Amino acid sequence: MLKTRIIPTILWKNENIVKGIGFDSWRRIGTLLPAVKVYNLRQVDELIILDIQATEEGRLPNLGTISDITKECFVPLTIGGGIRTASDVKDILRVGADKICLNTTSYTNPSIVSDIAYMYGSQCVVASIDAKLVGSEYYCYSHNGTVNTGRTVRNWAKELEKLGAGEIIITSIEKDGTMQGYDLDLISLVSTTVKIPVIASGGAGKYEDMYQAIKKGNASAVAASSMFNFTEATPHAAREYLRSKHIPVRKI
Amino acid sequence: MTAQVVVIDYGMSNLASLARSLEKCGASPLFSSDPKEILEASKIILPGVGSFAEGMANLSKLGLVSPLRDIASGKTIPILGICLGMQLLASTGSEGYEVEGLNLIPGKVIKLESHNDQDKIPHVGWNNIEIKQDDPILAEIPDNTDFYFVHSYYFQPTSEDTIIATTPHCGNFASVIRLNNIYGTQFHPEKSSQPGLKLLSNFLNL
Predict the structure, then answer these.
(1) Which of A4, A84, A175, B48 could be joined to B85 by an S-S link, Cβ 3.0–4.6 Å?
(2) What is the pTM for the complete model shown?
(3) Does A249 fall in a domain?
(4) Which residues of B fall within a CB distance of 8 Å from A68?
């Protein structure tokens, strides 16, 4: 049976790993390569590494660094940040990444999602939605959570699936970094809207939060960053916890 | 030049992660589409992602179909097909119309069919293998170990005897196969963490 995945998300800025709260006040919490090495040794299910400065600086994540990362990473690796064209994707895959993560570009140029899906397969396209509740409706934000795109999460998730995204990572901007639990309504909104796998992101602080995202939110995978960086929690212990709650997880 | 591990480069694969994994296992693989180099290999890996028809077309264009069949008929040089590479070992592939495969292991490649809500297609993610026969390629890999899969088609061997392991998705499909020295894995060992590296080093030690 297919397993529910636990995915550490690494936010990357100048070869460092950073983490903020609510997409703000970034603080340096480690260096990139050693962290990847540790996660690989601990046999994580997957890794998502996002260069949070790339879009703002109008460039791609450093290909040399990705190449160094893939020397230490023997699980599926998703890279995001600053991707604007199918040829950017080619460069990133060529140095050993398996999937790319799209956010800001998908709003300005939605056809890039279908282009990449056509050229490299849907499994290669992870569409990222950063969302915030405005009134009674969730809206999609681009540019690291700073710009309201005017699109509702409900419609945009459906659109991304239609364009050929292979999975959607849904992040609550307000919950991110708070470690107070995922926004279960948001996750459940996306997972009931699309059939493709949904990765819950933003707010995980304890293993129980992950269980809720899977059980109540219907997520296929749970991503976490602060929880693995600022608490004793590890992806391995998360896996054992979920197993004890009868969630199918990898046997190590 | 001494004989070495050759990974066939026929334009159907992202070779970087396979290269990294083989290096991690202590091998220095040669990536080649040159029939001469391939005929001198001590071991051959046929990777691949994409469509069966395109994969076969590329192998033919590069003049690699006969050399691979010759090597296989010698029964001494181990060959490992990964994902599409495993599927190309079959007699035929079918993506709406039938295409001749390398025909190194009798069988056909057909589309996965959903049996219930859990059976998503494409089959993407970690899933376990159920070992049907002990085999050196699975040495020290316990039954039910999870590997990483990405595919929509599967290999249906003509003979059950060629099935080393199956995976419970869309019914049970063959996830590891073998005939003589020719092996195939539907999953990606190079993306399957420690068990994947173990399988690759088992292959390198054959």
Answers:
(1) B48
(2) 0.92
(3) no
(4) none
With H, G, I as helix, E, B as strand and everything else as coil, classify residue B21: helix
Q: Would the CB atoms of B123 and A2 count as touching at under 8 Å?
A: yes
The residues of B whose Cβ lies within 8 A of any Cβ of A are 14, 16-17, 20-21, 24, 49-50, 118, 120, 122-128, 144-146, 148, 150, 168-169, 190-194, 196-197
Contact B56, B88 (CB under 8 A): yes
CATH number for the domain that contains residue B55: 3.40.50.880
SS3 A144: coil
Residue B64, sorted as left (phi over 0), alpha (psi -120 to 50) or beta, turns out to be: alpha
Determine the distance in angstroms separating the CA of A135 from the nearest CA of chain B, rounded to an integer. 35
Q: Give the closest of A70, A166, A251 to B144, CB-based.
A: A251
Query: Is the distance from CB of B68 to CB of B59 less than 8 angstroms?
Result: yes
Residue of B nearest to A68 (CA): B20
ipTM for this prediction: 0.88
**In which band, very low, low, confident or very high, does the pLDDT at B3 lie, cut at 50, 70 and 90?**
low
Residue A160 lies in a domain: yes
Structural domain including B96 reads 5-204
Q: Domain tally for chain B? A: 1
Instruction: Please name the residue that has the structure tokens 């190449």.
Output: A67
Summarize pLDDT for B105-160 with one digit per residue, the tens. 999 999 999 888 778 888 999 999 999 999 999 999 999 999 999 999 999 999 99
* CATH number of domain containing A21: 3.20.20.70
